[in-house]
Recover the amino acids of this structure.
């Protein structure tokens, strides 16, 4: 494709033209006077560019991040200067830690006011430097196509992530004649080298207790199937890294669970006892490794094969026995081409024991109170479509979803590896916008939900359909759990005073229902699935239900 010349366009119009040329046709915003010229340009392309108006910039940035997870390409997020940018920073931090492509555009003060601490002025290069892959400011409208092409390339290449672009207000009203540039991502994506394949085969030949750990984003269905074939051929157990459970089909017999806050003690021990870890796409973050204890830094007790798309991640925290910078898709395809020995592997009993432990982990939970969340999850798994999208923020309530739902479709898990509260509802909105033909189910705790509860207005404004399962125990559950453990009988600051959530949902014209007994949930959930409107189901949970594994005294 060649560049397209445009005549007499304002900077705002050229920005929108360039986004459309790059394939960016969805944006999330809170409108602001600092980028009125962009909003005016978006008015002219309403049929080509879907713009979702949000109620807080944090929610808008979360929505753009969730879009990037679903589509493996960036959405645009537009916010105003100063307070708007500060609010949006939580979504940028999430996109960085979750390796999600995202383009954040911030209105900026006029160029002649820069450096004077003008109204709401911030130096965004300094503010976002540790939170984004690249931060820039466009001071010449003629450079908009050049800079947006670079922003797209940086956001989507290697380990994907967020790019922040500041837009001085007066630059957006300058009139220029300039060419727009279509997306032309330059990427050399070679297969796993033959030498690396030989090294992996040699490592497997001497292994007795191997594990595959998968993670990252941007997987193709062909690559997921290739990885499944490799795991089957070699009889290897597969573990998902923190909040990357949808990467590998959880119904596959070789899948044995997820690492992170909901890891079973048996699986954690199994990772420690493994003699070989084949890690594909995962950074082996703090959450995945339980504070770098399951896999120790700098030299793990296990031999480590680390395959990651960004060479900067290889040997960054853990010394790899074999480390290769390769995309998850090429890595999986290459691994699937490696023929396994026809003989039974040395780890047959190891795999069988892991499979049994995983089945046991799914079989029951420690329950207290009138609502049995284990039974609730069984109902959700039975009634929800197999390709439903599940979202959540942060809190102990997420354990019900992470432990007891089995993801079979990709992408279907929108959850922040950054641990950001308030993520679930905005992510569900992005899913409903992006995948309207799929069912979206948001899990939220009462504390987590209230951090972006105002986005119910966005659901109503854009007439979106999703289901919200609001697990209400009246406390900040995770913090309460840690207080119970480390400071018993000294609980403080964790009790919550909540509104009437059902009435709150109805005030926006949405459906709302309260569940106080297990027997009430099935009908409420079935009705929500059948409804053409959004339904909030408030599930009253005993505050002593600390987690899926423990109850408080």
């Amino acid at each position: 494709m060649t560049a397209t010349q445009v005549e007499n366009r304002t900077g705002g119009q050229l920005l929108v033209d360039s986004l459309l040329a790059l394939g960016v046709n969805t944006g999330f915003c809170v409108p602001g006077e600092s980028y009125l010229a962009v909003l005016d340009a978006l008015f002219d392309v309403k049929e080509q560019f879907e713009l979702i108006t949000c109620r807080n910039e944090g929610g808008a940035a979360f929505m753009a991040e969730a879009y990037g997870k679903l589509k493996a390409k960036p959405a645009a997020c537009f916010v105003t200067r100063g307070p708007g940018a500060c609010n949006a920073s939580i979504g940028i931090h999430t996109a960085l830690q979750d390796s999600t492509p995202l383009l954040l555009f911030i209105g900026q003060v006029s160029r002649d006011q820069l450096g004077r601490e003008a109204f709401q002025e911030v130096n965004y290069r300094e503010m976002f430097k540790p939170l984004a892959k690249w931060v820039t400011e466009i001071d010449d409208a003629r450079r908009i196509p050049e800079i947006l092409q670079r922003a797209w390339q940086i956001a989507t290449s290697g380990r994907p992530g967020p790019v922040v672009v500041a837009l001085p207000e007066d630059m957006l009203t300058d009139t220029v004649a300039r060419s727009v540039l279509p997306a032309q991502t330059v990427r050399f994506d070679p297969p796993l080298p033959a030498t690396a394949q030989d090294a992996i085969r040699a490592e497997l030949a001497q292994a007795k207790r191997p594990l595959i750990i998968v993670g990252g984003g941007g997987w193709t269905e062909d690559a997921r199937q290739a990885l499944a074939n490799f795991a089957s051929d070699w009889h290897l157990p597969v573990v998902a890294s923190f909040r990357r459970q949808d990467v590998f089909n959880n119904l596959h017999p070789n899948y044995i669970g997820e690492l992170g806050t909901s890891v079973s003690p048996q699986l954690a021990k199994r990772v420690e006892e493994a003699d070989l870890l084949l890690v594909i796409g995962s950074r082996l973050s703090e959450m995945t490794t339980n504070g770098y204890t399951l896999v120790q830094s700098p030299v793990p007790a296990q031999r480590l094969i680390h395959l990651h798309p960004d060479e900067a991640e290889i040997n960054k925290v853990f010394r790899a026995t074999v480390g290769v910078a390769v995309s998850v898709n090429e890595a999986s395809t290459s691994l699937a081409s490696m023929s396994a020995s026809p003989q039974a592997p040395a780890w047959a009993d190891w795999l069988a024991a892991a499979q049994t432990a995983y089945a046991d982990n799914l079989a029951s939970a420690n329950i207290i109170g009138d609502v049995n969340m284990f039974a609730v999850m069984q109902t959700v798994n039975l009634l929800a479509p197999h390709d439903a999208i599940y979202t959540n923020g942060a809190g102990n309530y997420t354990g019900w979803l992470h432990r007891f739902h089995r993801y079979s479709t990709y992408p279907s898990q929108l959850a922040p590896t950054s641990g950001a509260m308030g993520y679930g509802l905005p992510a569900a909105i992005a899913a409903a916008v992006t995948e309207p033909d799929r069912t979206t189910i948001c899990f939220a705790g009462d504390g987590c939900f209230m951090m972006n509860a105002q986005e119910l207005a966005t659901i109503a404004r854009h007439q979106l359909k999703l289901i919200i399962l609001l697990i209400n125990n009246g406390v900040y559950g995770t913090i309460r759990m840690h207080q119970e453990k480390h400071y018993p009988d000294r609980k403080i600051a964790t009790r919550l005073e909540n509104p009437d959530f059902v009435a709150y949902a109805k005030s926006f014209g949405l459906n709302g229902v309260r569940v106080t007994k297990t027997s009430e949930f099935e009908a409420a959930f079935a009705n929500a699935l059948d409804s053409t409107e959004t339904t909030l189901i408030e599930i009253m949970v005993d505050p002593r239900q600390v987690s899926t594994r423990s109850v408080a005294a």
